[in-house]
Amino acid sequence: VKNPATSSVASHDEYVAAQQTAPETGSPCLAYEWPAMPCGTWVNARTGRSPILRVTNLRRRFPLLTRSLQFRAFAMALFLLPRGAAAQDIVPITLTLEEAIEIARQDNPGLRAARNDEAIANWNVRSAYGGLFPSVSVGGGISWQGSGEQQFGSLTAEQLGFANQPSFLFSNYNLSLSYDINGRTLMAPGQAKASRVATRAQVAGSEADLVLQVTLGYIDVLRQAEQLLVSEQQRDRAAFNFDLAQARLAVGTATGVDVGQAEVSVGRAEVTILQTANLLETARIRLLQLMGFDDLYSPFVPTTPFALSEPTWDREELYQLGLESNPNLRSLRANRSSSSYSVNIAKSAYFPSLNLRASTSGFTRQASSTALSVQQGELQALGSIQNCLFTNDLYSRLADPLPPQDCSQMAFTDEDAQQIRSANRGFPFDFTGQPPQLSLSINFPIFQGLNRQRQVSEAQVQLEDIDLNLREQELALRANIATSLATVRAAYQAALIEEQNQAVADEQLRLATERFRVGLADFLELLEAETIKVEADRLQITAIYVYHDSIANLEAVVGTSIRTP
């Protein structure tokens, strides 16, 4: 049996996907990646470990073996998936950092809400262009007036000779065109497009923040998995030392105190496993939350390796790259462009404005009964005949009589009655047009209480503020790149030193174990070496992932990826 004291994170560099504890037995259960399975279903009864979900990634020294193990883990996971799961919206079993970022870009609610602003900005551009065209409106209406006697001032319809008025149906229609053009309207499309660019830059900034959070969350999952592995190795070595202490007690070379201390070490190691497993679960849940998943227990195995390499980036080159890619600077530049349009729009208040109006309308009227209209027609015809007869009588009394008029032509006929009835059928669309109207006006603003001067001054001050803020952010970018790059370099050197310390702690633990085995050292010496070993392992992991966190923060400052994970 191999001595657990010879195992180390530096030599194997493996990580466990996750771990939980079976509530029935209290023993570790590696079925964490499969929450649908009861704890212990895929756990070896002798070792208490899962033969399926323990994922080993020999990242730095055995890349071919890494890919082989990943492929086998992926194939086994697909085999064990419930039928129909492929059709569900689930996290990929083997999840790379690029996949996690892409999923977060698509599903993160906060980023999707930020992208909705871009749709509003697009409509603002369309609306600004629409303001360059005239406005056209069409209207109409219908009304009804009941029968009865109406009053016109102090007289009634009957007194005016319009008794027994029927009910009427009315309809009216109108078409109007208006066109207003001024400096603000002409410059509105340019400002709307500049504002849209600013909105897109803000969305890009939100996306960059999300990418940083997902990257740090992904790294945290790997970090906690490594810490869990160290805790398991600590538990294995503590169990080995406990067995060794019992064996020495059996032959009389150890005391019961040594056995008790070894047993306490096993218990403390189990507690550490529970704590680190909880931290791993928390890191996984936070990463899934950033990715926008409702199921916070979706199984996945992070497969993107992060190598420890010497940072060779040039500070000035990173600064020039950051000037082009930094989201904050890009957003400020877009806001400056929009503010420059605001200055021009404020100055356009001094320009004249043009107003054009055109309209036309029509109406219809239809009575419910034409009897009154026919009667009025008959009375008018009768009056015309009487006038004609009177005129003929006058003509006949002259000394030289004039030829008489034919009064029969003025008689009211059935055709006249039918014509009146036909004219009463215009409702609702056979309308009578009214004269069209057209107007054109030009306004020259002279004095508006210094309001225009105030608006121009305010817009210029805002533009100057953005210029100063942009300069401040450029200085901050240079300082942030310098400090972040220095942090990366310091983290790299610290990781190298911790790797050396870990190797020394490995050797010290191996020697202490051999000395305790042959009886040349007591258990306190072995326990001290074990403590130094665990601390060295954890400090090495911390140093390595502080390095990766520092690079992620440097990439966030620059605004683009500067390495290939």
From TrEMBL:
Chief location category: membrane
Protein name: TolC family protein
A UniProt-annotated Pfam family: OEP
Subcellular location: Cell outer membrane
GO molecular function, one term: efflux transmembrane transporter activity
Keyword Nuclease: no
Keywords: Cell outer membrane, Membrane, Transmembrane, Transmembrane beta strand, Transport
InterPro entries referenced in this protein's UniProt entry, alphabetically: OMP_efflux (IPR003423), TolC-like (IPR051906)
Gene Ontology CC: cell outer membrane; efflux pump complex
